[in-house]
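#struct-help
A.M.: can someone run this one for me? Single chain, 399 residues.
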Amino acid sequence: MQPPSSLQAILSDRSLDAPFVTIAGKVAAGERISDNDCLLLYEKGELGYLGALANHIREKKHGSRTYFNRNFHIEPTNVCIYTCNFCSYSRLIKQREEGWEYSMDDMMDMVKAYDGQPVTEVHIVGGVMPQYNLAFYKEFFGKIRTHRPELHIKGLTPVEYYYIFKKAKVSYEEGFKQLIEAGLDSMPGGGAEIFHPEIREQIASDKCTGEQWLDIHRVWHQLGKRSNATILYGHMETFAHRVHHMSLLRELQDETGGFQTFIPLKFRNQENQMSHLPEVTTVEDLRNYAISRIYLDNFDHLKAYWPMIGRTVAQMSLAFGVDDIDGTIDDTTKIYSMAGSEEQNPALSTQDLVQLIKSVNRTPLERDTLYQVITDYSDHVFADEVVYRGYTALPVVQS
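D.P.: on it. Structure tokens below:
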């Protein structure tokens, strides 16, 4: 697949229809595009055109810099009181023998397994079950903080918090204050799916609403904390539903400034109640990344979650607006491998990630959760790399 042409080439293209010239002009001037502009891009925008605009924005914000972090995931349980039709990961209570429900000791053993390793973040998210309540997470976060004070705790989604705080009979603000005191640092972006009730009622009717998801992030931001945001795309939603979803995120970001990263999540159709729906193509994945980057002008970062889309598409996405490809993961997440993602054993070493980024002429930067640069790997050579004539290569391993 050819990389997108430059924005200047787009603006010089006399065959381009007037509305697309206008949108390109807005991007060149750093102006915000409208919802109608965004819908037009979804309906008629060609991949090369979208890539040129998105890459212009990406490079204006970040140059060639591409971020990753060293993290690991803990998924307390995949048993859940909720039924989401798109989910291949969860098991109902009546199916709990097919799932897992880790104890606090189990999960602390997972944390301790990384002692002495240079991970900077633990990402905690899972199913919703009564035993994983406010008292449980206060104690768990506190134990992590005591055991490893420097480890950033990124934990739970609004779906989990809505249930936990309601069960504890505390407000969002009070619940968060207790968890912050225990050690919680930031919130991931999961559970957003699609905000529009027309679709949300069909795919995830029994968990928190789109409005509640946004309200929980609003309160979190008002407490001075940062979070991420997602969209689940490529199922039964229309392009208009995608625009509606991102418009609500853009409005909240205008209000609070608390979002760091937008993460489009691709619907995968294996082993769930929506398996009859085909998955969208790689071209649509790249179009969606590009349009997200063009529309969400007030989000600093756009992330491609490589375990879900695979390493090759993640590399290609770096020319379509993406500046972050997540972390090392270290084979500790099952959410997407159980749904038929490209990566069935999602683990990449730091060296793997650096080489993946360098091979498409981007600059690899290890970051912490809040995007402070830890290490610039642009000139770094690993011990087992071969260096010659200006570039590096991994050694050949004889089978």
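A.M.: thanks! The two ends are 31 Å apart (CA to CA).
D.P.: also worth noting: The chain has two domains: 7-62, 65-376.
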